[in-house]
Amino acid sequence: MQFWRRKSLWLALSASWLLLILLGASPLLRLAVSPRPQPATPQGWPHWLDAALLQSFSQPEEPPEDVPQPSQALHGARCSWGTCFDTSRCRDDGLKVFAHPAAGTASETHRRILASLEGSRYHARSLTEACLFLLLSQGTSAGQCGPAPHHWDGGRNHLVINLHPDSCPRASQLGQAMVAEASPRVDTFRPGFDVALPLLPEAHPFRGGAPGQLRQHSPHPSAALLALGEEGGRWHTASTHSATCPWDGRCEQDLGPKQDLSCASLGPTLGKSCPTPPSASSLADVLKPLVSSKPCSPHWELPFSEVIDWTKAAIVADERLPLQVLAALQEMAPARVLALRQQTQFLWDAYFSSVEKVIHTTLEIIQDRILGTSAHPSLLWNSPPGALLALSTFSRSPQDFPFYHLQQSSHPEGRFSALIWVGTPSQPPLKLIQAVAGSQHCAQIMVLWSRERPLPFRWPETAVPLTIMDGPRKVSDRFFPYSAISTDAILSLDAHSSLSTSEVDFAFVVWQSFPERMVGFLTWNHFWDESQDGWGYTAEMANEFSMVLTAAAFYHRYYHTLFTHSLPEALRTLADEGPACADVLMNFLVAAVTKLPPIKVPYGKLHQEAAPLAPGVPGSRPHPQPPDQDCINQMAAEFGHMPLVSSRLRLDPVLFKDPVSVQRKKYRSLEKP
Amino acid sequence: MCASVKHSSRGPALIPRMKTKHRIYYVALFSVVLLGLLATGVFQFWPHSIEASGDWAVEKRSAAVPVVRLPSDSPVPERGDLSCRMHTCFDVYRCGFNPKNKIKVYIYSLKKYVDELGMPVSGSISREYNELLSAIADSDYYTEDISRACLFVPSIDLLSQHALHIRETAQALAQLSRWDRGTNHLLFNMLPGGPPDYNTALDVPRDRALLAGGGFSTWTYRQGYDVSIPVYSPLSAEVALPEKGPGPRRYFLLSSQMAIHPEYREELEALQAKHGEAVLVLDKCTNLSEGVLSVRKRCHKHQVFDYPQVLQEATFCVVLRGARLGQAALSDVLRAGCVPVVIADSYILPFSEVLDWKRASVVVPEEKIADMYGVLQSIPRRQMEEMQRQVRWFWDAYFQSIKAIALATLQIINDRIYPYAAISYEQWNDPPAVKWSSVSNPLFLPLIPPQSQGFTAIVLTYDRVESLFRVITEVSKVPSLSKLLVVWNNQNKNPPEDSLWPKIRVPLKVVRTAENKLSNRFFPYDEIETEAVLAIDDDIIMLTSDELQFGYEVWREFPDRLVGYPGRLHLWDHEMNKWKYESEWTNEVSMVLTGAAFYHKYFNYLYTYKMPGDIKNWVDAHMNCEDIAMNFLVANVTGKAVIKVTPRKKFKCPECTAIDGLSLDQTHMVERSECINKFASVFGTMPLKVVEHRADPVLYKDDFPEKLKSFPNIGSL
């Protein structure tokens, strides 16, 4: 028994030994053969067991560093915004720009640039009130720079617009001046200080400019859009009107071997068959339907690159890797192509289509630098309607504007302020006040009592605050951004307007869906009058409309700011002269911003007949009044184009006049025949 | 051993009657075997912790690292070339075609550099540089294959120029196997320059190498070539700070740096004197007791504050230039969620190529320190809170660790090499909460497509040929129709012969499908050439030509929406606590049925290829709700409501089951409600928007001669 036990024990022991040897021998052998690690490259960077024990790169125990003297003002190539521009001069009135008079004969482009400056709200009439001095470089392509003006001051607070950059030697002579030039080289360009412009051809329109070519959202095989191309190292901007490429028709030519390959390989991607290099002859065909725009190589700073996010509108690629670009473009998601195309159109229309826009954009960039923290956020520069139309003086928060609610996932406020304009001698609009105050969305009612008559003794009791504001004299005062307006929405009314609470409620609910548009009850339509060879407009009932009367309309309070602070003086004067013109002007303005028609909502027939809603100053005209055709033409000229857009629809309540019990309907009073 | 002894004391059961001597002998033998087995097991199954090629301990590093002797006359690279840009100094061919659009980064293996006398010239690797290289090695960018690499990172630690042998380090760089004048080499440096003038970029001659540097100024930074990185603060990594929400804090403005130029300190103290409690200017402590780290304390007069904790008490924190432009204080400030006020003229902020610092900082020129308070006061509270959230996001995403810094740097270089695949501004800058909630409408450009383009009608049909022909005839009367597409969804039956189809004025195409699926109606067929698509069922014969033409006109004014005829509503059922489908006469509408609706053809692409989750399969499996799915999709991607056109009609035809007829069915309603609940859970939200309006012609029901109206035949039953 004992023997058997001992035997089994021995067996177990030897088995374990065997196991041990089998398992343990090989690693031991490995260790024995190569006691040091293999010199071969380790997998990845080695993991160090003692990483925690390693010293840090910075020694906090270091004695405090020697602190140098505050830096002195820097010059030339070393200039940056903080060191070479004196913002304190712009403190009081903000940016004011004075242009040094041109010496000698000015070219057409120079004239247009100066005219653009004069039309800008940043224009200063005299040297003393200005804090930025504009100098149009007189250098022509023939060479030689003009002499420095008297008030040169080493170039401090100067902006030199250099249309022919090759002619003037750069920074060395310019001192502390900023340089705005077309397509500067990236290695001499001082970001945040210089401004990159697009090349302005002589024929570039002064104002307005051709709208973008895009007529539909999704790609169409044969249209070039905003085209930027490198030609002799300059960026061109143009909107194509024909199948040819925008710059001097070169695209249709075959590329000679001498031509710059960098453009050659990239040109085609502009959307139309631009020059095609022999090596990639199929490139153009493949890219045509795909690409919106694609500038050439990154040798040159892109126009307005300080504020424009070009990655949203262009594909900047390295010309050295054309095949890679090709592959990438082929794989590009339709969503991206769609977005790029639309963005080019928006950029073209917002910043490039006219000399005026280019110059105003340049000034706006400098204004943004001065403003610092209250400058336009990137979103405002890079989504419609663009920073020139979204005034940073209004607000810095995108959700305060009517345009960005989607991106900000915000909503316009759920209440409105009624603004009643009492123009002609009349009784206080008591009925109107009661009707408007009855709306659950009404936050306040403001009466603009513009007459010199004494204020009436009694005002009705209302559920909402009623404010009487005294003093406005001019018609354009009704569009003044009164600080008392506390809501996003304004219901603009005339004393003679007659509305029911239902109408007000419904119109406001509609406005909430379209906060960037005007929502009104009575409409006008514009048309091209062949016989007069000009624009005309009519108040007659028609199948379409393009304007709503501000005698009864909802719109965003931002438009008051825009009306007062962005419109040229001349236009506002025009509005003051002809009362109907104020309506037209407001509609022009909103249409120019939104590029969309206003919205019409139903209006009860009864009180329309009882008290016709007349435009401008009520009572002065019968309803189908003969409007002043002159003002619409003057405005179209001032805007540089006709911004109004016609609509053929009206938004009614869902059950409007449907054969169903009135009890089911929310807006019953609209149902009356 | 202890265990064995215990066993042996209870031994008799196992080894009975054995002599004690024997017993000890056996126990010893077993123990040895046991230990041996244990050791082997550990060796076999957990080998990397002990001895693997990737794990080096200190001794190992000194023993195993190859030594490279640098002769004193070995070449020194040129000084950095200030005109270098990606297109001149960077060899993109090395990056080549790459389906993932990702650069490949190689890390040189570790070497020890000694001079002719055998004295080491390179310092040991710092903790941060080791972390940085590990982060790169663990990332998708890493490659072991030097010949496939596009970017090379030396394992020579240049993070701090302090105690660096400039000349010898440069020589060490120059002898790297692929140096080639530094082309495609990436050097990391956080503390550049040295006394007395403190250059703003690394002084080591580096020729064409890219520099990821902390503390660049405008004149050393090569825009689009170098990368500006933060100066990492080891202090912030050590200290745990509780998260603090946005809002004003105890101090309005705080300055916590110790080494500040006396002139600037004077100005800051003047601010403090003027604004009292709101401004706090701290300095180093003079009378700290032994053992207290001076870097962790700050003092104001006799008050002692913990650093960096005190930063959390301030809304704005000054980050002033010291001898160097880049300050580790910036990292501490971001860490504490304090909005940095950067006062360092010509300083290139970290990652400024992609990060929008206007959203997270205030930059004040050095001359304007005195005006700083007013500037900060003018920032509205909402914007200030926005900045605090942005600071938080920047810290979390790009600053909080060496790894985050390394990956952001590589991403920036990657974006330059594959610009068409670059990360967008929003992806870099928008905090996740904003990214999640904001809607970017794919058709954002406000524009009204030309009427001349017309629309393509798509009729989905199975076998109701007679009804189909009636629909075709009716629809063909619409002036703006440009093409008619019949989607024949019946695989068991051929479509009628060509001769039997109605003769219409526009092209008529029949598409046969492979499977009877409802999704077929939304397939982006090549035959669709117009932007506008009219989806119409094969039994919708009651819509007049005026109504359809008007619908198209409405779509032109709202090309990014679904524009349809029968409207429906979703409601929240409070009893059941879920969504409910409603087809009654309501004052509101949130959906339109795609049995008759206009929409942009892009939504066909989205429906077919980008529908989230399993919605498409669910629809095909249930043979229902494809229209609800489309409503969800469009509302979700555009953030906008549908447009219902024209008055309500009875969509009923005598010989077929029309939408309304079907909708009235109770089980059908239950099923539709289920769809809404299902889709809402897949989308993670309820995207449908409720509106109270519909579109009618301008003169609809107005007192106006019918014959002068553009669309007189509207709403008649």
Automatic annotation (TrEMBL), chain A:
Membrane topology note: Single-pass type II membrane protein
Single GO BP term: heparan sulfate proteoglycan biosynthetic process
Catalytic reaction list: 3-O-{[(1->4)-beta-D-GlcA-(1->4)-alpha-D-GlcNAc](n)-(1->4)-beta-D-GlcA-(1->3)-beta-D-Gal-(1->3)-beta-D-Gal-(1->4)-beta-D-Xyl}-L-seryl-[protein] + UDP-N-acetyl-alpha-D-glucosamine = 3-O-{alpha-D-GlcNAc-[(1->4)-beta-D-GlcA-(1->4)-alpha-D-GlcNAc](n)-(1->4)-beta-D-GlcA-(1->3)-beta-D-Gal-(1->3)-beta-D-Gal-(1->4)-beta-D-Xyl}-L-seryl-[protein] + UDP + H(+)
Record domain Glycosyl transferase: where: 416-656
Location in the cell: Endoplasmic reticulum membrane
Coiled-coil segments on the chain, per record: none
Any one GO MF annotation of this record: glucuronosyl-N-acetylglucosaminyl-proteoglycan 4-alpha-N-acetylglucosaminyltransferase activity
Gene3D superfamilies xrefs: Spore Coat Polysaccharide Biosynthesis Protein SpsA, Chain A
Family matches, as InterPro entries: Exostosin, Exostosin_GT47, GT64_dom, Nucleotide-diphossugar_trans
GO CC terms in record: endoplasmic reticulum membrane
Pfam families in the cross-refs: Exostosin_GT47 (PF03016), Glyco_transf_64 (PF09258)
Residue intervals of the Exostosin GT47 domain: 104-247
Primary localisation category: endoplasmic reticulum
Annotated pathway: Protein modification; protein glycosylation
Enzyme class: transferase
UniProt-listed Enzyme Commission number(s): 2.4.1.224
Its biological purpose: Glycosyltransferase required for the biosynthesis of heparan-sulfate (HS). Transfers N-acetyl-alpha-D-glucosamine to the nascent HS chain (GlcNAcT-II activity). Appears to lack GlcNAcT I and GlcAT-II activities.
Protein known as: Exostosin-like 1
UniProt lineage: Eukaryota, Metazoa, Chordata, Craniata, Vertebrata
From TrEMBL, chain B:
Segments forming domain Glycosyl transferase: 455-700
Catalyzed reaction equations: 3-O-{[(1->4)-beta-D-GlcA-(1->4)-alpha-D-GlcNAc](n)-(1->4)-beta-D-GlcA-(1->3)-beta-D-Gal-(1->3)-beta-D-Gal-(1->4)-beta-D-Xyl}-L-seryl-[protein] + UDP-N-acetyl-alpha-D-glucosamine = 3-O-{alpha-D-GlcNAc-[(1->4)-beta-D-GlcA-(1->4)-alpha-D-GlcNAc](n)-(1->4)-beta-D-GlcA-(1->3)-beta-D-Gal-(1->3)-beta-D-Gal-(1->4)-beta-D-Xyl}-L-seryl-[protein] + UDP + H(+)
GO biological process: heparan sulfate proteoglycan biosynthetic process
EC number in record: 2.4.1.224
Cofactor(s) in the UniProt record: Mn(2+)
PANTHER family per record: ACETYLGLUCOSAMINYLTRANSFERASE, EXOSTOSIN GLYCOSYLTRANSFERASE 2
Pathway(s) this gene product operates in, as recorded in its UniProt entry: Protein modification; protein glycosylation
Originating species: Heterocephalus glaber
Cellular localisation: Endoplasmic reticulum membrane; Golgi apparatus, cis-Golgi network membrane
Family: Belongs to the glycosyltransferase 47 family.
Membrane topology, as annotated: Single-pass type II membrane protein
Annotated function: Glycosyltransferase forming with EXT1 the heterodimeric heparan sulfate polymerase which catalyzes the elongation of the heparan sulfate glycan backbone. Glycan backbone extension consists in the alternating transfer of (1->4)-beta-D-GlcA and (1->4)-alpha-D-GlcNAc residues from their respective UDP-sugar donors.
Keyword Repeat recorded: no
Quaternary state and interactors: Part of the heparan sulfate polymerase, a dimeric complex composed of EXT1 and EXT2. Could also form homooligomeric complexes. Interacts with NDST1. Interacts with GALNT5.
Transmembrane segments: 24-46
Domain Exostosin GT47: 100-378
Protein name: Exostosin-2
Origin superkingdom: Eukaryota
Principal location listed in the UniProt entry: endoplasmic reticulum
GO molecular-function terms, A-Z: glucuronosyl-N-acetylglucosaminyl-proteoglycan 4-alpha-N-acetylglucosaminyltransferase activity; glucuronosyltransferase activity; metal ion binding
GO annotations of cellular component type: endoplasmic reticulum membrane; Golgi apparatus
Keywords assigned by UniProt, alphabetized: Disulfide bond, Endoplasmic reticulum, Glycoprotein, Glycosyltransferase, Golgi apparatus, Manganese, Membrane, Metal-binding, Signal-anchor, Transferase, Transmembrane, Transmembrane helix
